[in-house]
From TrEMBL:
The keyword Cell membrane does not apply. Keywords: Coiled coil. Residues 60-71 have a biased composition (Low complexity). Residues 35-83 are annotated as: Disordered. It comes from the Bacteria. Residues 20-81 form the Transposase TnpC homeodomain domain. Residues 41-58 have a biased composition (Polar residues). It holds the Pfam family zf-IS66. Residues 3-30 form a coiled coil. It comes from Lactiplantibacillus modestisalitolerans. Residues 100-144 form the Transposase IS66 zinc-finger binding domain. This is IS66 family transposase. Residues 165-443 form the Transposase IS66 central domain.
Length: 515
């Protein structure tokens, strides 16, 4: 009996050593190896890892299909990419002429006979501030004065200020928002630039502008949420963020920013952010309240509370990521499973421009066979439950029903990376902002990210879109109707850029002309 107990203890210790060795290898790679999943097949690894697993980073529908027995094609020499200037950039023509209107010899009887193109230069006009003092003119109507026995004085209507008792204009606030939420520049780092332009203010003032302006656009934010619920397919994700002054929570406690968006194939794209104090399923119920359709998300259990009215679909990028981490620590079974996932993404890359109907037909005819091989290999693999391979297999099996549903739907993407890329825009900014001071600031962040990312998804300039929204919100009623807000939805926003062609005749000295 003692001998049997000893053998059992030895087996348990061996299993523990195997798990710890795998964990050490994984953490060592995370610390010192490349963080990117893109692997150069010609580069030897410091950790002697098998470079035939992947040759491309993870992207939506854009995966490498290379396998370990394939020969890597030779890369074509890089070509210089020609710069492209947008068609809406104004053009100014400069013609160089002699200053004294004489020829190099000194004769004055000269006439132009043509011009020669020399080069093109792209000019930049730096930002500058100017103080706009607004007056309203007073008029007197003599007829009204005689008819009504009054002075007959009147003034034209004055549009209200964007923020009462403030110097803030639509263009200035839009620039502050663009720098923070598009370029990722925190408010305190914008103060020195404003001081150089001639305006000294405080971070509290800029914060007040961001929050007050967001409150004026809340009806449009709510309308985008309503429009989002009309779509039959959605993608969702969430990420932590820190709010310092939140009632009932410590400053270091985690809050969350949620994102929901329409798939890439859907017209009139919407990207909607929402701030939640927790990651619980109760907030997911609030976000997707009254929604009935398809939702693609990860395996987070909080989505389980959404009920049967929402059909869940899984994300193959999450499955692939777990097997990639496992294959990177010399587990050959994970490498083979990974190659099957690569084949799926390679086919999806070929079909990404097809219509949903064609893509669904291709998935059912070609991906189904690869999918059966994948599940057969996953089910037949024996491994320790607590190992990285065991956890990757357990995650895939727990999401099996959600992953298999994508075969029969051509609208939804093969992965949820579109929503994750939108969330990455927030994460990049969060690295610079670090936190939100209050829940008002967190809610305003959700609103501005919604408007900006929705503008990007609809291929419109977010800076000009913000300027026009902030200009229009001053004249909107307190409770605007749906038809009044519809004009400012991103897909209805069609601001035609004014292409101006100006001609400038500038005289220069003779030496410059001859040169």
């Amino acid at each position: 009996m003692a001998e049997a107990e000893k053998d059992q203890e030895i087996q348990e210790l061996k299993a523990q050593i195997k798990l710890l060795t795998e964990q050490v290898a994984f953490l060592t790679r995370k610390l010192y190896a490349s963080k990117s999943e893109k692997v150069d097949p010609n580069q030897t690894s410091l950790f002697d890892q098998d470079t035939s697993v992947f040759t491309e980073p993870e992207q939506t529908g854009d995966q490498s299909s290379s396998t370990s027995d394939q020969v890597q094609p030779k890369k074509a020499p890089k070509k210089m990419r020609q710069t492209q200037v947008a068609k809406n950039v104004p053009v100014r023509i400069t013609i160089l002429e002699p200053t004294d209107e004489t020829c190099p010899v000194g004769h004055v009887n000269i006439t132009p006979v043509g011009k020669k193109f020399v080069r093109e230069e792209l000019k930049l006009i730096p930002a500058r501030l100017y103080l706009n003092k607004i007056y309203v003119r007073t008029y007197k109507c003599a007829d009204c004065a005689d008819a009504t026995a009054t002075a007959g004085l009147f003034r034209s209507l004055v549009p209200p200020a964007l923020i009462s008792h403030s110097l803030a204009s639509a263009s200035l606030v839009a620039e502050v928002l663009y720098r923070k939420f598009v370029l990722g520049v925190p408010l305190y780092r914008q103060l020195p630039e404003m001081a150089r332009l001639g305006y000294r203010t405080s971070e509290a003032t800029l914060t007040n502008w961001v929050i007050k302006a967001a409150q004026k656009l809340e009806p449009l934010y709510d309308e985008l949420h309503r429009q989002l619920g009309l779509s039959h397919h959605l993608q969702g994700d969430e990420t932590p963020m820190e709010v310092l002054r939140e009632p009932g929570k410590a400053a270091t406690a985690k809050s969350y920013m949620w994102v929901a968006r329409t798939p890439i194939k859907q017209p009139n794209p919407v990207v909607y952010y929402a701030y939640g104090a927790t990651r619980s399923g109760a907030f997911a119920q609030h976000l997707y309240q009254n929604y009935q359709g398809v939702l693609q998300c990860d395996g987070y259990s909080g989505y389980n509370l959404l009920g049967n009215s929402i059909q869940r679909m899984g994300c193959w990028a999450h499955v692939r990521r777990k097997f990639y981490d496992t294959a990177a620590v010399h587990i050959k079974v994970a490498d083979k499973i990974l190659q099957l996932i690569n084949q799926m993404f390679a086919l999806e890359r070929e079909w990404r421009r097809y219509s949903p109907r064609v893509r669904r037909r291709r998935r059912r005819s070609r991906l189904r066979k690869i999918l059966k091989r994948f599940w057969r290999m996953v089910d037949q693999t024996e491994t320790l439950p607590q190992s990285r391979l065991g956890k990757a297999i357990a995650y895939a099996q727990s999401q099996r029903a959600n992953l298999d549903r994508i075969i029969n739907d051509g609208v939804i993407d093969w992965s949820n990376n579109a929503a994750e890329r939108n969330m990455k825009s927030l994460v990049i900014g969060r690295k610079n902002w670090l936190f939100s001071t209050s829940t008002q600031g967190a809610n305003s962040t959700a609103l501005w990210m919604t408007l900006i990312e929705s503008a990007k998804a609809n291929h419109i300039d977010p800076r000009q879109y913000l300027v026009d929204l902030l200009t229009a919100c001053r004249t909107l009623p307190a409770f605007p109707k749906t038809e009044q807000l519809a004009v400012y939805l991103p897909w209805n926003y069609r601001r035609q850029p004014a292409v101006t062609v100006k001609t400038e005749y500038r005289k220069v000295d003779r030496a410059a002309c001859i040169a």
